[in-house]
Design goal:
Blueprint: E1 8-15, H1 19-37, E2 41-45, H2 50-56, H3 62-69, E3 73-78, H4 88-100, E4 105-111, E5 129-135, E6 146-148, E7 156-158, H5 165-179, E8 186-191, H6 200-210, E9 217-222, H7 223-229, E10 237-241, E11 260-267, E12 274-280
Parallel strand pairs: 1-2, 1-3, 4-12, 5-10, 8-9, 8-10
Antiparallel strand pairs: 3-11, 4-5, 6-7, 11-12
Helix pairs in contact: 5-6
């Protein structure tokens, strides 16, 4: 007799705004999936949000992260409250998750499920399937930065843009591995290396890792070109978006959603570590 499948340990964190409503709907879908595909989840709810902070003053910290480390995944709604200090909740919770759990893969699948939902002419379900992959723990996003001469005419703010070869390599390798799941195996690196010279390291590592995947086509383009051509892309591909451009500049970063799940790590044969991902549904 085969042993029953172990229940997936799932944390549930509705958060603020529309977050609880979205998570509630997502759990109904999850109930249906469990019935249809024969798996189970063991769910634990967590009360961390802007409303909770205003109610009791508790902040999400390293101790609060410990029980979450024991889970397989977390379904997270939305975090943010207009009456909470600007950026505090995001730094504590969102980046507490990302950096505390080393969730270095931000995966944003773009999948057309029905041609009637597509605004592009003559595109079908077979034409649009893009995995947008962004490095999730490095660069400037979520960094505190520095303020000098505050309140003076010479006030200056700055923050370091930091990339590591290890961080770049593991996200690029993940993109190449995922591309092998698609009919057309192709990875496109999107960056701003022409205006931000340090991003040349991405191009170097991209070519080095890409050489290990001779069955996967690869190219690279600047973010403006990507923005201009993405709507004309007809063949499925895996896109390696690396948060190389400033947020708001990259087409990969223009839209965010309320419902997000922190996915269980998947294996990476290069280092023996597991790829840790934050998946956003659009």
């Amino acid at each position: 007799m085969t042993s029953p499948t172990r229940a997936v340990k799932l944390g549930v964190l509705g958060g603020d705004g529309i977050g609880p409503e979205v998570v509630e709907a997502a759990l109904l879908v999850l109930d249906a999936c469990e019935a249809a595909f024969g798996f189970k989840t063991e769910r634990t709810s967590f009360d961390w949000s802007g409303a909770q902070y205003l109610r009791d003053g508790r902040r999400f910290d390293a101790a609060a992260l410990e029980p979450i480390r024991k889970l397989d995944a977390v379904l997270l709604g939305a975090i943010g409250h207009p009456e909470a200090p600007r950026g505090m909740l995001e730094a504590d919770i969102i980046f507490g998750f990302r950096r505390g759990l080393d969730l270095y893969v931000n995966l944003r699948p773009l999948v057309l499920y029905d041609a009637r939902l597509c605004p592009l002419k003559d595109k079908t379900e077979q034409d649009i399937r893009i995995f947008v992959v962004r490095e999730n723990t490095e660069d400037v996003y979520g960094r505190e930065g520095r303020v000098e001469g505050k309140g003076t005419p010479d006030e200056r703010v700055s923050v370091d843009m930091v990339f590591t070869r290890r961080g770049i390599e593991r996200i690029i390798r993940y993109a190449f591995e995922r591309s092998r799941e698609l009919d057309r195996k192709k990875v496109t690196l999107v960056d701003k290396a022409n205006a931000i010279p340090i991003q040349a390291l991405w191009r170097e590592v991209f070519d080095t890792v890409g050489a290990e995947f001779p069955d996967v086509e690869r190219d690279a383009m600047y973010v403006e070109t990507s923005s201009a051509t993405s709507s004309r892309t007809s063949a499925p591909r895996s896109a390696a978006g690396s948060a190389l451009a400033r947020r708001g500049t990259s087409i990969r970063d223009e839209s965010r959603c309320s419902s997000r799940s922190t996915a269980r790590p998947r294996s990476t044969p290069d280092s023996g570590r597991r790829a840790r991902s934050e998946r956003s549904a659009h």
